[in-house]
């Protein structure tokens, strides 16, 4: 008969039910005992909200305590992210807020979708609102759920646009830097340093975050404060920059560039054609200088402190804290010119040419070539060479020279009285520096290589002065410079900068060009200043120091507007009174005397006589420069770097000089692009700065800036020198062209 299976089925069901209830019970026991603490913490967290507290950014001062970068309290409207997650709620809330803050709903939605704002902070929808609007929004909190008023700080630059390349500016964290900043704990909607000291000292200026923990109800309204860890504000930083000297350097540079645009380069008659045709027949007799840009460095050669660092064209760092529309920014920083072509790099504004310029140095490099010859024993202080106006290389087979495949003959600069290469007669190191005898240094360039088994001896010697490496200054994007050698040429050939044939080796002809600061040598005005400071101090290569002190947060304001009370400051880091010593170069006194005397003659004369008297390259410019203790005594050198296609209107002007008075230990270098001879463009800038440092040239007082008019920003700021009489020199018909 059939078996009744109902009882068995009920038994199975009872067993399954018992097992299920057992599992549920075990799980409940586990949750209530083993995981009780963790679950309770999770529940508590849902009742809490942690709000980060951003620190106030440290301030930046000049050497006298002027406040170069400060903070201004602003009010920002933010909305809690939780309220914005529903699209319908978000749209409705944006519509309500838009009318009060004047920001379109579309812009608020763009911000929401951009994913560039921190999810831990309210999403900002309007910055820098007035107190009345803030109070009105807070009164309508029931109609505007999640809307908050946040106190923030905006960067202000009281003396802008002075020293904008040095101080720098702030900006949003970019896609390229996001990972690095987030990894360091930054929030995405923070503004960070993008240029200058603001960028290089970002960590010191930023400070440390704090936070506050609130208990909130189900509507995310705050019930009580649970915990608060205050933020630690950023350190205040004092620079070595003296704004008085900075302003004067900027004015002297800009004014001289404008003057050089009114001057012309002469396209003279070529003696090779019996003075029938012009050197460049396709151009007129006179061609204006472009003189688009330049830089100046003023350094204390005793401690390495940078007193002024000017670059032109410049900008106003307040632009980046102002509400400028895209149209104005396109005018300020155009990608293309009026014809649709890429913008001329000569007109780039956001380039600090003082540390980023990549320049041939021309004859300002000759003192380092002289040092190399003396220190390697190639020649002594009493050795002479007869300069006949040209130098013919002796290490190359003359048949090869005559074939025209290799350049073997190099000429001196042209004398204005003859139109031919200058002939200086018998010259030693001192005189060769004074009159800038190219032939003398061409010979060094060839012989120092030939007599050292074609090794890179000249390169090794000039690198001692810091050429070919970054100086270590506390500013971003510094250019290392290049000292040409076999490896550099091979790399340039691979990159297509030079031909493959040129890149096959490093030749004596390359060394001849290097000896006078031409060829593939490149350096910044800061490199030049550091090198001349080393000549001045007897062989101590000092790291250029631009940070004078780092103070604990909260240096108080002085009673004088625009100044901080540095006397009340407390050091966060003990200051380095003298810049770090990079290296000490063996520099016997007789070598130093020989080079310094030659550079003093550049300034004061005398020149030399061969076929007629040749003035030194600077004595006419410095004819009215006071002698004696009244003015800082100088040693310096002119330089003219040949430009593209050897057109004289493309020649760039260089000049560097240092004080021989240990009580006033200054070095000044200047470089003016496409502005002509060293004595006619860069030289007057250096001369004016030393006259001002001597108290002999009047300077405008440094004053706080007027409010920025954002409606009239269409060009770089102008800053001209009021009294330009210091540029004047005494010029005659017969002189060398440097």
From TrEMBL:
Subcellular location(s) per record: Membrane
Pfam families: PBP_dimer, Transpeptidase
Keyword Membrane: yes
Residue ranges annotated for the Penicillin-binding protein transpeptidase domain, each copy included: 294-689
Coiled-coil positions: none
InterPro entries: Beta-lactam/transpept, Beta-lactam/transpept-like, PBP_dimer, PBP_dimer_sf, PCN-bd_Tpept
Assigned GO CC terms: plasma membrane
Any GO BP: cell wall organization
Keyword annotations: Membrane
Gene Ontology MF, one: penicillin binding
Keyword Protease appears in the UniProt entry: no
Residue ranges occupied by any Penicillin-binding protein dimerisation domain in the UniProt entry: 55-226
Family under the similarity heading: Belongs to the transpeptidase family.
Protein name: Penicillin-binding protein 2
The organism's taxonomic lineage, starting at the top: Bacteria, Bacillati, Actinomycetota, Acidimicrobiia, Acidimicrobiales
The gene coding this protein: pbpA
């Amino acid at each position: 008969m059939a078996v009744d299976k109902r009882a068995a089925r009920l038994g199975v069901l009872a067993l399954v039910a018992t097992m299920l209830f057992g599992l549920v019970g075990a799980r409940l026991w586990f949750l209530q005992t083993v995981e009780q603490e963790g679950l309770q913490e999770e529940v508590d967290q849902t009742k809490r909200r942690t709000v980060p507290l951003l620190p106030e950014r440290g301030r930046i001062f000049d050497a006298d305590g002027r406040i170069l970068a400060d903070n201004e309290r602003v009010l920002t409207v933010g909305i809690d992210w939780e309220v914005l997650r529903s699209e319908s709620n978000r749209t409705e809330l944006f519509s309500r807020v838009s009318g009060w803050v004047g920001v379109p709903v579309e812009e608020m939605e763009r911000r929401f979708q951009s994913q560039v704002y921190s999810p831990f902070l309210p999403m900002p929808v309007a910055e820098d609102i007035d107190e009345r609007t803030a109070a009105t929004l807070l009164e309508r909190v029931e109609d505007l759920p999640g809307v908050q008023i946040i106190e923030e700080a905006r960067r202000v630059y009281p003396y802008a646009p002075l020293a904008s390349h040095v101080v720098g500016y702030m900006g949003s964290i970019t896609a390229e830097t996001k990972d690095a900043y987030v990894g360091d704990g930054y929030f995405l909607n923070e503004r960070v340093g993008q240029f200058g000291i603001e960028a290089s000292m970002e960590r010191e200026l930023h400070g440390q975050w704090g936070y506050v923990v609130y208990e909130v109800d189900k509507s995310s309204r705050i019930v009580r404060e649970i915990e608060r860890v205050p933020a630690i504000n950023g350190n205040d930083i004092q620079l070595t920059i003296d704004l008085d000297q900075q302003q004067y350097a900027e004015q002297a540079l800009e004014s001289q560039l404008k003057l050089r645009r009114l001057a012309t380069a002469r396209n003279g008659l070529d003696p090779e054609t019996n003075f029938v045709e012009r050197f460049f027949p396709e151009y007129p007799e006179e061609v204006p200088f472009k003189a688009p840009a330049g830089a100046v460095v003023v350094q204390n050669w005793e401690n390495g402190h940078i007193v002024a660092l000017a670059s032109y064209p410049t900008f106003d760092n307040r632009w980046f804290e102002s509400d400028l529309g895209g149209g104005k920014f396109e005018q300020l920083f155009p990608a293309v010119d009026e014809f649709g072509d890429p913008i001329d790099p000569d007109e780039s504004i956001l380039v600090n040419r003082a540390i980023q310029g990549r320049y041939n140095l021309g004859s300002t490099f000759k003192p380092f070539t002289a040092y190399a010859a003396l220190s390697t024993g190639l020649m002594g202080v009493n050795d002479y060479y007869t300069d006949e106006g040209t130098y013919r290389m002796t290490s190359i087979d003359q048949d090869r020279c005559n074939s025209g495949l290799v350049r073997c003959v190099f000429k001196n600069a042209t004398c204005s009285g003859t139109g031919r290469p200058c002939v200086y007669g018998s010259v030693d190191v001192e005189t060769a520096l004074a009159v800038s005898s190219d032939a003398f240094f061409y010979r060094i360039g060839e012989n120092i290589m030939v007599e050292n088994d074609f090794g890179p001896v000249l390169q090794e010697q000039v690198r001692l002065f810091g050429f070919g490496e970054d100086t270590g200054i506390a500013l971003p994007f510094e250019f290392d410079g290049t000292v040409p050698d076999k490896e550099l040429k091979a790399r340039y050939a691979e990159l297509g900068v030079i031909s493959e044939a040129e890149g096959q080796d490093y030749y004596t002809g390359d060394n001849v060009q290097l000896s006078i600061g031409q060829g593939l040598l490149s350096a910044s005005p800061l490199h030049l200043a550091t090198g001349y400071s080393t000549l001045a101090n007897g062989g101590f290569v000092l790291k250029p120091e631009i940070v004078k002190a780092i103070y604990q947060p909260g240096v108080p304001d002085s009673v004088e507007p625009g100044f901080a009370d540095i006397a009340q400051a407390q050091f966060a880091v003990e200051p380095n009174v003298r810049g770090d010593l990079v290296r000490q170069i063996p520099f016997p006194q007789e070598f130093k005397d020989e080079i310094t005397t030659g550079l003093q003659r550049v300034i004061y004369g005398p020149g030399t006589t061969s076929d007629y008297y040749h003035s030194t390259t600077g004595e006419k410019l410095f004819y009215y420069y006071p002698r004696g203790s009244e003015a800082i005594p100088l040693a310096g050198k002119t330089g003219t770097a040949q430009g593209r296609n050897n057109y004289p209107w493309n020649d760039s002007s260089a000049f560097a000089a240092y004080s021989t008075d240990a009580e006033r230990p200054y070095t000044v270098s200047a470089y003016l692009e496409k502005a002509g001879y060293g004595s006619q463009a860069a030289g007057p800038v250096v001369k004016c700065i030393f006259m001002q440092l001597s108290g002999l040239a009047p300077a405008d007082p440094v004053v706080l800036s007027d409010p920025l008019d954002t409606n009239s920003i269409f060009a770089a700021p102008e800053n001209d020198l009021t009294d330009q009489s210091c540029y004047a020199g005494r010029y005659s018909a017969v002189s060398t062209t440097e």
